[in-house]
# Entry
Amino acid sequence: MEKKKNLITGGLGFISYYLARLLLDEGEEVVLFDVVAQSRLSKGISDRAKVVRGDLSNWVQVFDAVKDNDIGCIYHAGAVLPPVSEQSPSAAYAVNVNGTFNILEAARLLGVDSVIYPSTLATFGPGVPRVVPNDAPQHPPNMYGVTKLCSERLGEYYYSRFGVNFRGVRLTPILGMGRFDRAQSAYNYLAVQESAMGRPYTVYVDRSTTIALLYVKDVARGLLDLKRADNAKLTRRIYNLYGLSLTAQELVDAIRRQIPEAQLDFKPDQEMIRLVGNLPDRLDDTLARRDWGWSPRYSLDQAVGDFIEEVRANRAIFE
Ligand SMILES: NC(=O)c1ccc[n+]([C@@H]2O[C@H](COP(=O)([O-])OP(=O)(O)OC[C@H]3O[C@@H](n4cnc5c(N)ncnc54)[C@H](O)[C@@H]3O)[C@@H](O)[C@H]2O)c1
# Structure
């Protein structure tokens, strides 16, 4: 009998919320695996998908979740992100490295068709070109980047050694309703979210500070497109993705085109500007475009407009 359900690890998180919605809208079945029982986003999805509570670092819980749910594809999005990864390197190692190992082992032993992995531009360290080639050297300076890079290599190894169909993408910071972190890129989502809620927001970088962003619905679509891509056309197991590069002023202008009364001002913080400045402006996504047709669908104005609609449809989350 053909296996057909999708397991999304970190299933109650931000990206997973949009991925689950997309898969469900496409008529697929979804199982959400997460260490928490609920999240601010989960109300919008848990009635349409099965939720399995478990810890990625626990082999038995991972194995049972895959074995008991007729899983054909694992979207492995569960992870410990900054700042927690830097405050607790051991937690980052246990969840991000051992968790990926557990997922790959379960996929191997149980014959799962594919494992799709969202990695990050944080796997590249300092010294890379501003436009980062797909195969640029990776020397990440923090634990998050180290663990995500290790997961990339584990996936490649499981593909070449055991034929586990591992595929991944490296993402830039993400714009979209439902982020709750305070990473250095947070001013982007906060500026849109607070404006959509009719509240003032002070941007903590310079007007000219530039950052690469992907709209979250493009990320979800990209993960699904990569899963469906013809394996014969894939020349890599991990692909850079790129959407938009924009200054903070360009983001503010885009918000004001949709909400002219938005109360946005600037109070630059030099440390945050330095941290954002360390991120590459752009990932070279030529190979993803060529091999499996990656192409972002949302322009800046479309992304901001859709983000505002999502906030207004989910106001209770932000009251
Ligand atoms: N948000 C971004 O800007 C961004 C950029 C690049 C890559 N990514 C990657 O995308 C993936 C999803 O990120 P997100 O932004 O949705 O993060 P998120 O924090 O919203 O979601 C992560 C989820 O993982 C869960 N989780 C944490 N520890 C777990 C454990 N031990 N067992 C099971 N689940 C556990 C959390 O409860 C959470 O629901 C991550 O792998 C991240 O590295 C995110």
